[in-house]
Amino acid sequence: MFTRTIRLVTLGTFATVLLSSPTFAAGGGGGGGGGGGGADPFAASSSGQASQPQPVYPKRGGTKATQKGKKPNNQSSIGDPAFAAGYRMAYDTIYERNDYATAIAQLKSLGHDDHPNVANLIGYSYRKLGDYEQSQVWYERALKADPNHVLTWQYYGLWQLERGNREQALYHLSRIAAICGTDCEEYRSLAAALDKPTGTALVY
Fold it and tell me: Checking CA distances to 173, which of 34, 46, 76, 195 falls within 20 to 30 Å?
């Protein structure tokens, strides 16, 4: 009886130590999943870290999944502040300096080509350079990663207009309406472009 009591006390002490350890209390270091809802996955919190949870991204064909915690080559993980900083740098290269070729190289160097935000901006950059074929490839890639990526539907709709595909642009507008309604900026922007006379140069 005395020996059994000692064993129970020992087991209870071990369980208490285990449950109070930092690793277990933190959930074993598990990552977030899901995401969506139109939130910017790269928005920094007050601590400067990328906001959680992070979206789940599709695996690229022909590559093996890396073990948890390891980074392939020198690429940053999605949750790494270095990735968010690299994305912001490329974003500024596009919208502040209009240096689209440099932005494409910056975005591709992030190592997350299948992230819809990254693929969409690469597509946008190719469109601004006049390479409509490559632009289409990247827009399609963004929508494959996230069929509800509203900004891609907008930018790709502008691509359709520039190529003279008005009916397709209207379809893109309907997709935007289904995702975020008719009051969102993406809908208003594409609708305004559709209201312009055919052949009007678009500045987007």
Answer: 34
Q: How far apart are CA 78 and CA 115, in angstroms?
A: 9
As given in the structure block, the two tokens for residue 175 are: 């997709």
The yes or no reply on domain 76-147 and CATH 1.10.357.10 is no
Enumerate the domain spans of the chain: 76-147, 148-204
Predicted local distance difference test score (pLDDT) of residue 150: 97
Whole-number Å distance between alpha carbons of 177 and 199: 25
Greater confidence, 2 or 19? 2
Distances (CA, A) of 204 to 12, 98, 155: 65, 12, 8
From the number of C-beta atoms within 10 Å of its C-beta (0-12, 13-18, 19+), residue 44 rates as middle
- Whether pTM > 0.85 for this model: the answer is no
Nearest CA to 123 among 97, 141, 149?
A: 141
pLDDT digits (tens, 9 = 90+) for 100-122: 999 999 999 999 999 999 999 99
Q: Which residue has the tokens 């920094």?
A: 44
Measured CA to CA, the distance from residue 36 to residue 26 in angstroms comes to 24
DSSP E strands in 19-114: the ranges are none
Coil vs helix vs strand at 44 = strand
Q: Residue 144 belongs to what H/E stretch?
A: helix 132-145
